[in-house]
């Protein structure tokens, strides 16, 4: 019996049955370990080893910081500033939504969190200005996906931990591609807004300086969190601690908008979100170990290299594979299933691991709002109280825009490698 094939068949069969990803991937791994007699005692040690990595400590801390900054009202203040700067024009709220999504992604590091924070405020506001709710939900779901590209991206932390790539370099490498993703989404947003006559939003009556002062602490957050990282003052994990301390200071001292009851709920919600990520990481590590031990991952890598020696053909093949995978699975699972196969290919073709990591994450960002799974769309349609299927046609222009930006990132590696080289982070 080929246990390598059984491993993947069992995983996808369980996924098809609607079993949660963590359970499906863990069950497949344990079944193969038991059936192939690889030694069941190894399960517990691998389970622990999967999460006992210092860089992964940054994930729950960045999740907590994102929850704190979102609940204290920073997203609302940033939206008001973007609204005031962009002004009164057709499609203004669409631009406000996308620009805020990209900026808030530099705080939350999570696509669904970004979509939830911005969608809760802007979907009702856009409906009042005449925007169709299905368009608004698709727009913000697409904009929220940029959160896993721009630093501090939880997805890039995982990639760095798996491939032993500098997380600081990955964070710097995601800056320009993240901005490019946001700019690409603006194009279909404006075209559709003008074609449908979506209304503009009135500029706030307060002076720009007043709105700016309200948002200044939110604007400083990425600078405080990432400035010390790029300046060599602290490591990525230490920057996550700084992010939590800064978030607590803004929430409790500056805005004074959170009570002890609020803090308890935030800690509970952040713990739940972190647990979901880490349980998938632990089981996915076990899955990758099982696949490597039975030899299926090496065979898969050799088959892909043997398919063609042309680097552009392989690049196209890998991107198509990742795009399809991103539509069906979450980024955490994809990293742990596919990277053990892709790492030998990256080394064989001498590709820059920072560029490849940003490009791979860009792929998975597209998957976050592309049906059938489309986790960001689930979040925004739930907020907008509309059926998920109503957004399927609305989201297509944004998918094409992101894929076009992905092509640019794939063909111009310097977009991802310029800043890491500039800061000496490679």
Would you give an account of this structure?
This protein is mostly helical. It has one domain. It contains 21 helices and no strands. Helix 4 packs parallel to helix 13 and helix 7 packs antiparallel against helix 8. The mean pLDDT is 84.
Question: Would you kindly provide a brief summary of this structure?
Answer:
The protein is mostly helical. It has helices at 3-16, 21-35, 42-51, 58-71, 74-86, 92-108, 111-128, 133-144, 154-163, 167-173, 175-196, 208-230, 236-254, 260-294, 296-307, 311-328, 331-349, 353-367, 375-384, 392-411, 414-422. The model has no long low-confidence stretch (mean pLDDT 84).
Distance between the termini: 44 Å
Q: How many runs of DSSP E, i.e. beta strands?
A: 0
Low-confidence stretches: none
Written as H for each helix and E for each strand, in order along the chain, the element string is HHHHHHHHHHHHHHHHHHHHH
Kindly name the structural category.
mainly alpha
Arithmetic mean pLDDT? 84
Question: Topology of this protein?
Answer:
Elements: H1 3-16, H2 21-35, H3 42-51, H4 58-71, H5 74-86, H6 92-108, H7 111-128, H8 133-144, H9 154-163, H10 167-173, H11 175-196, H12 208-230, H13 236-254, H14 260-294, H15 296-307, H16 311-328, H17 331-349, H18 353-367, H19 375-384, H20 392-411, H21 414-422
Helix pairs in contact: 1-2, 2-14, 3-14, 4-13, 4-14, 5-6, 5-12, 6-7, 6-8, 6-11, 7-8, 7-19, 8-19, 8-20, 9-17, 9-18, 10-21, 11-20, 12-13, 14-17, 15-17, 16-18, 18-20, 18-21
């Amino acid at each position: 019996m080929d246990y390598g094939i059984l491993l993947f068949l069992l995983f996808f069969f369980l996924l098809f049955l609607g079993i949660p990803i963590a359970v499906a991937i863990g069950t497949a791994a344990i079944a193969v370990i038991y059936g192939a007699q690889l030694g069941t005692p190894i399960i517990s040690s691998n389970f622990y080893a999967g999460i006992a990595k210092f860089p992964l400590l940054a994930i729950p801390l960045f999740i907590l910081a994102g929850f704190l900054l979102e609940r204290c009202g920073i997203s609302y203040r940033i939206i008001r500033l973007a609204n005031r700067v962009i002004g009164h024009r057709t499609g203004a709220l669409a631009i406000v939504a996308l620009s805020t999504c990209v900026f808030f992604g530099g705080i939350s590091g999570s696509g669904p969190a970004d979509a939830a924070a911005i969608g809760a405020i802007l979907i009702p506001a856009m409906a009042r200005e005449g925007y169709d709710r299905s368009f608004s939900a698709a727009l913000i779901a697409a904009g929220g996906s940029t959160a896993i590209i721009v630093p501090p991206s939880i997805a890039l932390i995982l990639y760095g931990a798996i491939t032993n790539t500098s997380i600081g370099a990955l964070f710097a490498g995601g800056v320009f591609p993240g901005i490019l993703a946001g700019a690409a989404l603006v194009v279909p947003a404006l075209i559709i807004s003008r074609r449908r006559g979506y209304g503009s939003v009135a500029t706030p009556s307060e002076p720009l300086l007043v709105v700016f002062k309200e948002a200044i602490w939110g604007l400083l957050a990425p600078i405080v969190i990432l400035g010390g990282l790029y300046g060599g003052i602290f490591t990525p994990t230490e920057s996550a601690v700084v992010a939590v301390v800064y978030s607590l200071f803004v929430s409790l001292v500056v805005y004074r908008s959170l009570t002890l009851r609020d803090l308890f709920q935030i800690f509970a919600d952040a713990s739940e979100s972190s647990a979901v990520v880490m349980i998938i990481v632990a089981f996915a590590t076990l899955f990758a170990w099982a696949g490597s031990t039975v030899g299926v991952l090496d065979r898969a890598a050799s088959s892909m290299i043997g398919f063609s020696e042309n680097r552009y053909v392989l690049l196209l093949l890998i991107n198509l594979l990742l795009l399809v995978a991103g539509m069906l699975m979450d980024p955490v699972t994809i990293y742990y299933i596919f990277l053990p196969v892709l790492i030998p290919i990256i080394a064989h073709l001498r590709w820059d691991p920072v560029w490849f990591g940003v490009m791979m994450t860009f792929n998975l960002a597209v998957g976050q709002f592309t049906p059938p799974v489309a986790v960001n769309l689930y979040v925004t349609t739930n907020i907008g109280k509309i059926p998920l299927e109503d957004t399927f046609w609305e989201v297509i222009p944004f998918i094409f825009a992101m894929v076009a930006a992905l092509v640019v990132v794939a063909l111009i590696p310097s977009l991802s490698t310029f800043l890491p080289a500039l800061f000496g982070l490679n």
